Amino acid sequence: MFSWIQQLTPATNVTGPVLVAYVLLIVFLIVVLARILGNLMLKLNQPRVVGEILAGIALGPTLLGNNLSQVIAPMEARATVGVIATLGLILFMFLAGVEFDASRVKPKIKQAGLLGFLSVALPALIGFPVARLMHTDVYAGTAGANLLPFALFIGAALSVTAFPVMAHILMERGELNSAMGSLGVATAGIISILMFVYIAFAGAVATSMASGAGFGQFVVKIVLIILFGVVSWYGVRPFLARVLPNSNHINGNQMAIAFGGLVLYGLIAHLLEINALVGGFVWGLILPNAPELRRALASKINDIAMIFLLPIFFANAGFMADLKLLTVETLPVTLMVLAASVISKFLGAIPAKSFGLSWREIGFLGALFNTRGLLVLVVGLIGLQLNIITPITFSITVVVALGTNLMTLPLLSLFTRRETAPQVAS
């Protein structure tokens, strides 16, 4: 009955008013579908982000096939949607930086520092044997022909912990300020910084090797990245502290500074080839440590970033992911990457035993560290754009994103379950 739909021909040479119409249609479908599926996931006691990822997949080739997916979203329109998705991602990572509360880290700096380092270092190390086992042209792109850049990006995907999603889950459970919640948030804050440093390093190595640049050019790039961080922290941060007062009333000029700096930092990070999202996170991080200002900025930006722009990123990822590429032959590798993602995060939590935590509390921390939100898709998308990984490997990162997000709440419930005390008759 609906065979005619499959015979539709994707539009070509889409420009001008027609391009605008397609982009607006795509954005409309994305926002509506993401909200519907996100609400459905909430009713199923799952994070909204799972539904938003599924919305992106539903509009891509996984369900519709390449032909019908391109009928709805022609390639020219996807390029424009990709730019909007990049802006949405920068804005989201800016929010992550804004919501980073250093005061939560300071009281537990030693414990959180150790756990944060291990929660990035162990997955990064485990990424090397995993990458070695899957280092074929099926999974590695032309820029990943050398094992090093491929292994670095596999390790980056394994090392991800989504700080904003973790904080949101703890808030919903009323555990944000609990002993375990505060330790988890402090550790996740340190993980976020180390993770983005690692992703920036991996990107710098990959682009240098792909371009055939010598060791000297790679060193120059690393020096520029370090200089970017130093100038931002010791130069731009004090300047912002003078021009942005600690107030919950933000005027137009202050919003212009916030948005202008956001875009500028995204551009700088893009030019440094460490991805624009890193710039958004750094800009949010260096804003004045003024709670009222940060809350005011977050309240103004949150809805447009989370409800409108961020689902566009999911759809853009969905256009690039085709889960039909994952066959019986790729199933062992998919399960291996998923298992390595989960196990490495729980291994990173084990040293908390030396802090006097019980195994149940360690399991709770491991489940928190395993929360990946959308960031694993970001790493995969960077690797795909740099041609370090193939579409099949990117589809595996989508499975990892879905799998780890789906298991977060059940695992947290499992490790917080308490035995019911026997009732004593009075």
Record keyword descriptors for this entry.
single chain, 426 residues, mainly alpha, Na+/H+ antiporter like fold, globular, disordered C terminus
Tally of strands: 0
Structural class: mainly alpha
Low-confidence runs of at least 5 consecutive residues? 419-426
**Known CATH architecture of the domain at 103-308 and 327-413:** Up-down Bundle
Largest sheet: none
As a percent range, the share of helical residues equals over 70%
Reading off the top of the CATH hierarchy, the class of the domain at 103-308 and 327-413 is best stated as Mainly Alpha
CATH topology of the domain at 103-308 and 327-413: Na+/H+ antiporter like fold
Distance between the first and last residues' Cα: 70 Å
Average pLDDT score: 84
DSSP helix count?
A: 18
Structural shape:
globular
Strand content: under 5%
Rounded to an integer, what's the Rg over CA atoms?
22 Å
Order of helices and strands: HHHHHHHHHHHHHHHHHH
Written description of the protein model:
48% of the residues are buried. α9 (163-172) runs antiparallel to α10 (179-210), α10 packs across α16 (359-369) and α17 runs antiparallel to α18. This protein is mostly helical and 426 residues long. It has a domain at 103-308 and 327-413: Na+/H+ antiporter like fold. Residues 419-426 have low confidence and may be disordered. It contains 18 helices and no strands.
Outline:
The protein has 426 residues and is an all-alpha fold. It is 75% helix and 0% strand. The protein has a domain of 293 residues: Na+/H+ antiporter like fold (Up-down Bundle), CATH 1.20.1530.
